[in-house]
Amino acid sequence: MTDAALVGNRTFENAEVLAHGVAEWLCHLAQASNRAFAVCLSGGSTPRRLYQCLAEPGIVSRFPWRRVHWFWGDERFVAHDDRESNYKMAHDAFLSRVPVPDNNIHPIPTEGTSPEQAAVAYETTLKRFYGAEFLSPDRPLFDVNLLGIGENGHTASLFSGQTALQESRRWALAVTGADPKQRVTLTYPVLDSSRDAAFVVTGAAKQKIAARALAGDRTLPVTMIRPIGRLHWFMDRAVAPEGAN
Ligand code: 6PG
């Protein structure tokens, strides 16, 4: 993979080509590291095929599973075996099918607790992994942060009009009211503590919202993601603006 392919926006022919391309990109970055490597996963449906590619022959044998740790940018507050669970989607797509150490998987707790307690517990998990109480602008928590966007411009579980958008101290928050389900979300300071943050977006239904975000529409939560490292947009042709590379 050329260096140019490692940074900046990329448009892929279709969702299948994108899934393979982004899986390859992630594998390349993880291989290039020589230490613990932290990936923050997004939920929803878009990344499922990308996650499945990580467990397929072209990548699974090359991926440094022992060094890579898996976190979630948000979670629906349902049991981990619920079809709506972001943990379940990733578990079924690849985590249950690859040689990843159990201790490298860090789900947001959703059972035997409340959304608020889960947010506090996950903040502790993230701080313990990071090894500090405060995020440093020189040392990102996540090596890669995979993000999706909703048709209403949300990302993770940061929805327009929510007080969570203004949170600058807490690392994770309980979110209610924005969606049929209660959720837990990471906050902007934590999502931005990323060496490489990548929006993974496919399908014509996302074209309008992606165009608004790419044009800098600050009314959208997605637009306010400002990683301390590099920001990428990985789109398929159905989403990409006319003429995008
Ligand atoms: C979630 C996600 C959320 C998702 C967008 C896009 O829990 O729903 O983390 O931020 O990325 O809603 O979802 P789709 O990929 O299903 O369109």
Fraction of helical residues: 25-40%
CATH hierarchy: architecture: 3-Layer(aba) Sandwich
H/I helix tally: 7
Specify the CATH class.
Alpha Beta
Mass-distribution shape: globular
How do you describe this structure in short?
By secondary structure, the chain is α/β, with parallel strands linked by helices.
Topology, element by element:
Elements: E1 10-12, H1 15-32, E2 37-41, H2 48-54, H3 57-60, E3 68-72, E4 74-76, H4 86-93, H5 115-130, E5 142-147, E6 172-175, E7 183-186, H6 188-191, E8 194-201, H7 207-214, E9 230-236
Parallel strand pairs: 1-9, 2-3, 2-5, 5-8, 8-9
Antiparallel strand pairs: 4-7, 6-7
Helix pairs in contact: 1-2
The structure holds 6-phosphogluconic acid.
Mind explaining what this structure looks like?
Helix content is 27%, strand content 18%. The protein has one domain (5-236): Rossmann fold. It is globular, with a radius of gyration of 17 Å. It has seven helices and nine strands; from the N terminus they run E-H-E-H-H-E-E-H-H-E-E-E-H-E-H-E. The chain binds 6-phosphogluconic acid (6PG). 6-phosphogluconic acid is lined by residues 42-46, 73-74, 76, 86, 148-150, 154-156.
List keywords for this structure.
about 240 residues; alpha/beta; Rossmann fold; six-stranded parallel β-sheet; three-stranded antiparallel β-sheet; 7 helices; disordered N terminus; binds 6-phosphogluconic acid
